[in-house]
Amino acid sequence: MKLFNKKGDDSRARRSARLRILRVREFAMVAGVLATVVAMGFAGYHSNSFKKINSWARLQALMITANAGFKVKDILVTGRTQVSADELLAHLSIKENAPILGVDIAEAQKSLAGLAWVKDVSISRRLPDRVLVELRERSPEALWQYQRNISVIDLEGVVLPVADLADYKQLPLVVGADAPAHVMELVSLLKAEPDINGQLASAVRVGSRRWDLHLKNGVTVKLPEQDMELALSYLAAVEKQKGILDRRIVSIDLRQPEKMIVMPENETVLPKG
After folding, report:
1. Residues 96 and 122 occupy one common structural domain
2. What global pTM score does this model have?
């Protein structure tokens, strides 16, 4: 059985010829199925054994359709990048030459939806002999560090199975137990401020309430619990005007609305007491 990505449609002439063949086959299939159902229904009425013949009747009807050409030959796939062909076929559990009308679409969709990389999936029949699988895969958006382990996650915080983390080293690093639950907002806000995003080394959740941004030059930016967008926008504006991130500073505190507290490298904070 062939499994390949769908790239385009057939020519008009080929489609017309295929349509004519399909109609002939459909007529033969319907006629055969109706004859079988009528005959079995008559027998069931007189023998009072509908339950006994139900599964047998279905099997016979599917065999008739398969003999008329309605059986699986190819599987067309769109949107597949991360899910391997072998993994997809294993979860579909669709065998070559199986009656296409007997394919359990709901069960196949449920099985594929359980794969970590699959965000959404739609499966349909393309009579007489093809099954179409339309995938929407998850996008890797961040590296998540927790308890010395690093994983690749998407914007919904779903952990994605990867063979080599080195392939994703360009992604932002987020740290903390609840970081995946809040990564969507953070990544979206950082993408809106490319000057800040480009300098990010990691983002650490503090007290399960807010973020500290650790920049590549060693500066820590303390974001507020609320209104992160305004705080980042303010920082980006000051950076553009004054280049504050290039100065010899340790941290920038943005936790107070419309206020920036900057701690220089040479400032020493004495303990109280």
Report:
1. yes
2. 0.75
